[in-house]
Amino acid sequence: MKAIASQMWWKYLSIVILLYVFVGGFVVPLRPGIMNTQPERLVAGASHTLVVDMYNTRYDMGDKVNVLVRVDGAGYIKATSVAVRDQNSLEVAMTVPRNLPTSSGAVAGTLIVHDSDNGFAVSPSAVTIVRGDSPAVEAVDWSDSAGLEEGPWKLQFPFIGILYETIRNTFFHVAIWFAMFFLMAVSMAYSIAYLRQSDLHYDAVASSFAYVAIVFGIMGMITGAIWAKNTWGVYWTNDPKLNMAAVALIIYVAYAILRSAVTDPDQRARVTAAYNIFAVVAFVPLVFIIPRLTSSLHPGNGGNPALGGEDLDNTLRLFFYPAIIGLIMAGSWLALLMVRLEAIKMRLLDFKIDYK
Amino acid sequence: MKKITHIFLLCVVIPFSVMAQGDYYENIGKIYVVAAVAAVLVLGIGAFLLYLDKRISKLEKQIEDEYGSK
Predict the structure, then answer these.
(1) pLDDT at A337 over 90
(2) Is the dihedral of CA A200, A206, A212, A214 positive or negative?
């Protein structure tokens, strides 16, 4: 480990990787998506004119646009005409068939907007179709297939309602928590090494990695609060994931306080090494297990999966994994600078200089 | 210690003021939120570097006091 620690290449590499993540995370566009549909309530057997507001589209460039409504168990309603209002807005005329698939009064319809350039934009349950008794203007039936092709692959992040552009926070908020946990694991490994060999160098490594992990954890908390304010509407909620993460971080802050409370280097190293092992052991159930056993608003927990499906698709992975690696390298770099500082301090102690 | 508190306050104030740049309802894409979150990361790592710088300066001063300057 000491051989890698003294080399420079991975430090430069961490800067390059983080630059790639910051630039790519901001400039890669979002896939076009459906923002709003008016009216949301359609009557079976009647003709309607819908206004569909889109995000990140350039319909004024003259692409041919198709609009469909899909109802499960019945089929597709194809728009009779699609007029472009402006670059982000469509006016869609469609006639809804009289026969609904269920005996209940209303069914939910999925709105699909397609153009050959961007492929599909889908908004589930964007419209509700209710039974009506007005006679149909013209007899129409459900179409069996959409008859449209997926557009060419493009480097675009997925469009998810309420998140919009903040899906990019995956590279910052989520990655910094992952990096923090890696740093804590390294810290624990060196605490075990200290307890086995009583070398103060290991204690310096363990404490430095733990300090950087605390800084990363605080950053993860602030970024999470900013993100929550803009998606959930509040900075903090009584969610198990949030509360348990706060408890886990407080355990680590207590580690820092414990270190400053004990003055004798050997005694401090022994006590805090043991504490550090217990801190990681407490961290795993608090952050990874308890929130999964209960229901949580935060993705990645009970009834709310993350890292799968639309939440983390392959274009996000292109930046998410480098973000984790880059932050781990940058965090290790910061920690190793602290280790070198501790080493100088220890040498000064050897020269009988009283370091305050 | 006072300086570190100021740095920490900056870490909170700057991102939140970045976030406030876009009007909440006008900023439908919420790109300012991403800018604020990225700012937290940059400032957090920057604050840590400043903290290290301070500790190194202190050591340097101590060595100078003991051995005199070169």
Answers:
(1) yes
(2) negative
Distance CA A83, CA A91 (A): 5
Give B16→chain A minimum CA distance, Å: 8
Tell me what the mean pLDDT of segment A254-265 comes to: 92
- Separation between Cα atoms, residue A220 and residue A306, nearest integer Å: 17
One DSSP character per residue, A32-93 reads: PEEEEEE--EEETTSEEEEEEEEES--GGG---EEEEEEETTTEEEE-SEEEEEETTEEEEE
Q: Which residue of A has its CA nearest to B65?
A: A353
ipTM for the whole predicted complex goes beyond 0.85 = no
CA distances from A87 to A18, A275, B27 (A): 34, 59, 17
Q: Is B28–A55 a contact, with Cβ atoms under 8 angstroms apart? A: yes
CB atoms within 10 A of CB B30: 23
Residues A32-47, mean pLDDT to the nearest whole number: 86
Instruction: Supply the DSSP string of A249-294, one letter for each residue.
Output: HHHHHHHHHHHHH--SHHHHHHHHHHHHHHHHHHHHIIIIIHHHHS
Q: Is the pLDDT of residue B15 over 90?
A: no
Of residues A64 and B48, more confidence is placed in: B48
**Which structure tokens are listed for A103?**
């005996």
Min Cα distance A254 → chain B (Å) is 18
Q: Does B9 touch chain A (CB under 8 A)?
A: no
Query: Chain A residues with CB inside 8 Å of B16's CB?
Result: 226
Mean pLDDT score, A115-142 = 77
Residues of chain B contacting A338 with CB distance shorter than 8 Å: 52
Which chain B residues are Cβ-neighbours of A166 within 8 angstroms?
30, 33-34, 37
Contacts of B66 in chain A (CB under 8 A): 351, 353
Chain-chain contact of A226 with B44 (C-beta, under 8 angstroms) = no
Contact (CB<8Å) A172/B41: yes
Nearest CA to A320 out of A135, A93, A211, A157 is that of A157
> Backbone phi, then psi, for A232, in 5-degree steps?
-95, -20
Question: Chain B: residue nearest A231 by CA?
Answer: B30
For A226, the closest of B15, B52, B66 (CB atoms) is: B15
What pTM was estimated for this model as a whole? 0.85
Q: Record the tokens describing residue A187, joined without a space.
A: 């810290």
Read off the pLDDT of each residue in A287-302 and give the average, rounded to a whole number: 78
C-beta atoms of B63 and A337 within 8 A: no
